Amino acid sequence: MSALEPDELTRLLSEAVEPIRPSAEAYRQIRAGIDRRRRWRLPALTLGGMVMAALIALAVVAIRPSPSNQVVEPAAPPVMPSTYSDPTQAGAGPSHTGSGSSGGGGHSSTRGTGAGTGSGTTTPSSPSTLRPSSPVTESPTVTTTPPSPSSSANPGVNSPPLPTPVARPAGSGDIDGDGRADDISADGSTVKVAFSRDSTVARVALAEISVPLTTTVVDIDGDGFGELLVQTADSGGTKSYALLHYIGLDTLVPVALPTGLTLTSGVRGNAANGFRCGGHDLEISAGTSSDGSAFSVTTTALTLSRDGLTATGTPASSTVRLPSDPSPFTPACGSLS
Amino acid sequence: MPARSDAARSEVARDADAALTALYSEHYRSLVRLAALLLDDIGLCEEVVQDAYIRVHAAWGRLQDRDKALAYLRQTVVNLARSTLRRRLVALKHAPKPMPDAASAEEGAYSLVERAAVIQALRELPRRQREAVVLRYYADMSEADAAAVMGCSVGSVKAYTSRGLSALSGKLEGLR
C-alpha cells in the first residue's frame, strides 16, 4: 500500500467538492438572517435580562432564611468580678451597737478580703466553686457604713443556682435544703458552715462572734433552705445577731436590715429590742420607755427574699409593761429564746 | 464600557456590511465546500456557512483584528459544523433518509459529491482526523492555524493528520 501524497489528497478533495455551487439566494438569505437578528436583538436582550433578574430574585428568596428560622442566641451574662461593688448598695450594720455584728455585704471568693463591717467571705472547697458576687440586700437607704469593695453584691444573673429543697420549710438545722442538718462552727470572727449536700465549707466573716458560739437555723421565708442566725455580741444585756441567707449552692451571705432596725434582743435602760420569726416573716420589735417598765413597742414585719429583708405593711404599735406582760424583747427564733 | 455614539455605530454597521459583501463574494464558495467536507449532510453546508456569516457580521464591532475576518469566519464554520454534527449524531445514525424529491440542479451536484469515494472515505474518519485533514489539505492551513481553529496543540494536529492520511490511503487504494 503506497502512502497517499498530500498533493494528491488536495486534488481529490478539490475535485470532490468542485460540483458544489452556492445557491443564488445565499446572499439574500444572509441579509435576511442579519435583519432578523437585528430585529430580535433588543427584545431578546430585554427578555434575557428579565429572566436573569427573575432567577436572581428566586435565588435570593430561596437562599434567604425566613425570620422564624433564625436562632437568636441569648446574650451572655456580663462577666462580673467577684469583687464587683454596686455603688447603689451598702452594707448595713446595726448602728447603735457600734459592734458591726450584723452587716450587709456580699461574699468573696477570696478569703479574708472582706474587711470592714459586715463583710462576708465564702471560701469554696475547690476552685470550681468560685462564683461571682451574690445578692445580699438592696436597701433603699444607705447606712453610715460605706460599702467595702467586697461587701456588696449585685443580685441577678450571676447568682448561683439554688438546688431543689427536699422539704418546705426546711428541717431542723438544714441550711442547704437536703434534709440533713449542716455543721456550723466558728473560727475567730468567721462562721463556718459545712454543707451536708456536698461537704463544701462556706466561710462568712463577721465583725465578731460571741463565745461560745450561739446559732440557730430557721427557715424564715419557708423556701426550704434554713437561714442561719448567729449571735455576734452580748454586752450590757443586749445580744446582737447576724442573719445569714442561703442564696445559692454553697453560698451564704449576711443579710442587711432596713435602716433603723437592728437584729438585737434585750433591755438596756429605757431602750429594748427583740425579734421573732413568724410564719414566713421576721418581726422586729423596738421599745422605748420612760420608766424602764412601761414600753411603747413598735413592731415591724419583714419578709425575706433574695434581695434581702423588706419591711411590709405599717409598723404596729403597742404598749408592754414589764415584767408583768410577756416580753417581746427576746430572740424568738428557732432554738433562740 | 463607554457608550458609542450613533455615528460610530452606523460606521461599524457600514463596515460590517461592506466586509460581509467582500467576504461573501470572495470566500463563500470555498467555505461552503469546506463545510461540505466537514459535515455528514451536504444539504446543511450552506445553512452552516450562512449562519457563520451572520454571526461574524453581528460580532464585527467586537473583532480585534478585522484583517483576520476570514480566519474568524473559518473558525466559526468549523465550530458550527462541529455543533451540527454533535446535535445530529444520533439522528444521522438511526433516522432513515427521506426519499429525495424531484432532483434540482443543486441536488444533482450534491449527489455527485455524495458519490465521490474520497467523501465516503473522509466520513469514515473520526471527527478530529477529518478536521485536521480538511484544514491542512483542502483549506491549505498551516499546522499552527489548524491547531488554532481546532483548539488543540500543533502536535495533536500532526498526529491527527498523519493518522487520517494513513487511513485515507488504505481506503482510496483502489482509486489510484
List keywords for this structure.
heterodimer, A: 337 residues, alpha+beta, three-stranded antiparallel β-sheet, rod-shaped, B: 176 residues, mainly alpha, Rna Polymerase Sigma Factor, Chain: A, Arc Repressor Mutant, subunit A, 2 domains, 0% strand
Describe what this molecule looks like in 3D.
The complex is a heterodimer of chains A (337) and B (176). Chain A has 2 helices and 15 strands. With 337 residues, chain A is an alpha+beta fold. The radius of gyration of chain A is 42 Å and the shape is rod-shaped. With 176 residues, chain B is mainly alpha-helical. The N and C termini of chain B lie far apart (59 Å). Chain B has 8 helices and no strands. Chain B has 2 domains: 112 residues, Rna Polymerase Sigma Factor, Chain: A, CATH 1.10.1740.10; 55 residues, Arc Repressor Mutant, subunit A (Orthogonal Bundle). In chain B, helix 2 packs antiparallel against helix 3, helix 6 packs across helix 8 and helix 7 packs across helix 8. At the A-B interface, helix 1 and helix 2 of A face helix 1, helix 2, helix 4, helix 5 and helix 6 of B.
CATH topology of the largest domain in chain B: Rna Polymerase Sigma Factor, Chain: A
What oligomeric state do the depicted chains represent?
heterodimer
What would you call the shape of chain A? rod-shaped
Number of domains of chain B: 2
**Can you give the helix content of chain B as a percent range?**
over 70%
Chain-wise SSE layout:
The complex is a heterodimer of chains A (337) and B (176).
Chain A: H1 6-17, H2 26-63, E1 107-108, E2 120-121, E3 183-187, E4 190-194, E5 201-205, E6 215-218, E7 227-235, E8 238-248, E9 251-254, E10 264-268, E11 271-277, E12 282-289, E13 294-305, E14 308-321, E15 331-332
Parallel strand pairs in A: 1-2, 11-15
Antiparallel strand pairs in A: 3-4, 4-5, 6-7, 7-8, 8-9, 8-10, 10-11, 11-12, 12-13, 13-14
Chain B: H1 6-38, H2 45-58, H3 69-94, H4 105-115, H5 117-123, H6 127-137, H7 143-150, H8 154-171
Helix pairs in contact in B: 1-2, 1-3, 2-3, 6-7, 6-8, 7-8
